[in-house]
Specification:
The chain has 15 helices and ten strands. Helix 2 packs parallel to helix 4 and helix 6 crosses helix 12.
């Protein structure tokens, strides 16, 4: 790869410590060394901290993604329109698990969801934590994951089981306690190789780079979103303010905005979405699927409405803009999943782990 690799990882560490920017090839080489186990925890902590302080670049992200994808344990048999919905974490708002709940809403409608996620590192409760509290343990059996995706429309891909090379990064990230480049890497390295993704990011400056990287690496419809709340940015669509979006659609980047009012939803402060530990968040999610209304429900509905577009199940774009009417129609589909019990059924089947969903006629046609 890059000539500077001749000096090994210390060369890259020295470069970022001096405030220099790595090319995508240098970043790929640096992360290849990390994934290969050639970097100590002390070196990795220094490297990630230097990147964080200076500010990571899109080229560094692209190189890192290429290296990490080479080392992940992949699924082979994946429906072509499978989608992932996940967030980067790192926003510090300690909210309820939105993307995980959204995955159940989508699966209830027959949308194939390869949900990637991990434990809490820079946040309080990760997807894997809340799933375990719901009685859905992490499972690294790839054949079973493929079967669940094909029969139940939903597979949970726990990051530690598919990214064993990242093991050293987990303890370092937890010790550092702030968001790092790995917050961005996880959502961009889905083990199912999905080409449709709704990714929440912790800062609007990363919306365009994330969408572009996903598109350049084969994405079909990839939306990077960051909500603006009364307490700062959030890594999902929000009711607390406008959501800034960069969407990769048909090989082009679109800059979009969505407000709760466009979907016919009331504006609510992010404090209404505050979560707790894994057990508390799991109880709130179950209550959501059993009919509880409020900010959590409406936030999940908004995210699911946009995810339906990304999955090709209901376009919300007209001449490069979000159609309020189409967004409301998608929201109605998501609401049907909740009110009919389909989302709860998806949860129940995931807890059983074997039987296919009986969503039958609820499965939506693929439009694009």
């Amino acid at each position: 790869m890059a000539a500077s690799m001749a000096g090994g990882f210390p060369v890259f560490l020295r470069m970022v410590a001096e405030g220099k920017v790595l090319s995508s090839k240098d970043a790929e080489s640096a992360f290849e060394a990390i994934m290969g186990g050639d970097v100590s925890e002390v070196q990795l902590a220094a490297f990630l901290t230097a990147l964080h302080v200076r500010g990571e670049t899109p080229e560094e992200l692209l190189g890192a993604v290429r290296a990490v994808r080479r080392h992940m344990l992949k699924l082979s048999h994946v429906p072509p329109h499978a989608i992932d919905v996940c967030g980067t974490g790192g926003d510090g708002l300690k909210t309820l698990n939105v993307s995980t709940a959204t995955a159940f809403v989508l699966a209830g409608l027959g949308v194939d969801v390869a949900k990637h996620g991990g434990r809490a590192l820079s946040s309080r409760t990760g997807a894997t934590d809340v799933l375990e509290a719901l009685g859905i343990p992490a499972d690294g059996n790839i054949e079973k994951q493929e079967e669940r995706l094909l029969t139940q429309h939903l597979a949970f891909l726990a990051a530690p089981l598919h990214h064993p090379a990242m093991k050293v990064a987990g303890s370092v990230r937890k010790a550092l306690g702030f968001r790092t480049l790995f917050n961005l890497l996880g959502p961009l390295c889905n083990p199912a190789g999905v080409r449709r993704q709704l990714v929440g990011v912790f800062s609007s400056q990363w919306c365009a780079p994330v969408a572009r990287v996903l598109g350049e690496l084969g994405g079909v419809s990839c939306w990077a979103v960051q909500g603006e709340t009364d307490e700062g940015p959030i890594d999902e669509l929000t009711l607390a303010g406008p959501t800034k979006i960069t969407a990769w659609e048909k090989g082009k980047l679109l800059q979009l905005d969505i407000t709760p009012e466009m979907a016919g939803l009331p504006s609510m402060p992010v404090s209404e979405l505050r979560g707790g530990d894994a057990v508390e968040n799991a109880q709130c999610m179950k209550a959501l699927f059993e009919g509880e209304k409020g900010c959590y429900r409406d936030t999940v509905l908004l995210n699911a409405a946009v995810a339906l577009h990304v999955a090709g199940r209901g376009s919300i774009l007209t001449e490069g803009r979000v159609s309020s009417q189409a967004l409301k129609e998608n929201l109605a589909m998501a609401m049907h999943s909740l009110e009919s019990g389909l989302a709860l059924g998806a949860l129940t089947q995931a807890q059983r782990g074997v039987s296919p969903l009986s969503s039958g006629d609820a499965a939506l046609p693929i439009l694009s």
